[in-house]
Please model this.
Amino acid sequence: MSKEGIPTLVGLMVLALLMYWGSRLFDAKLLVVFTGILVFAALFSVYFFRDPQRMPPQDPMAIVSPCDGKVIGIDRVRENEFVQGEATRIAIFMSVFNVHVNYVPFRGTVEYMRFFRGKYLRADLPDASTHNVHILTGLATPYGKLLFKQSTGMIARRLVNNLRQGQKVETGEKFGIIKFGSRMEVYLPACAQPTIQIGESVRACESVIAMINEEEK
Model:
């Protein structure tokens, strides 16, 4: 279980114990029902915040998926915050049933971080990319700039990003989590070519979503 989920689990269990104690003290059957709901929610939080062991591929030119989910978009866009130019964007939708621990997609140095306030639209909608609450993290890599974006959704309301500017990171390094369904986007360096297709399922840290082509550096 990821450390970010421990406060949620503890809070739900404490509430469940209080409800159970109240049901015995006042002989209130309704409180028993609430106790059962809270216990179920606590068990689901253990499932949701699971943190399975993942190993990145050995290929140093591989860019890995930062999250579990389904690829919902691959397109060319202009990115003005960090890349400041055209970039290939890969968008991944995370459902509540996916592992939500986030991983660094490629090695480099954190050069840019910014939090944006916004809405809580459905994470699979195109407008969610620009209008939802999100965090941008830009890496300076040996092959150019790489940017990734954590976005909230209708259910996901909290983004956790433990990186800091100036930090050196490695491919497949854990850096945070998005709670309860969301969206991740990766903006590739110019010399990287996508290796996945729209509709494909990916696994965080393990699935290769793009490859660096040194000849195009």
Remarks:
- The mean pLDDT is 88.
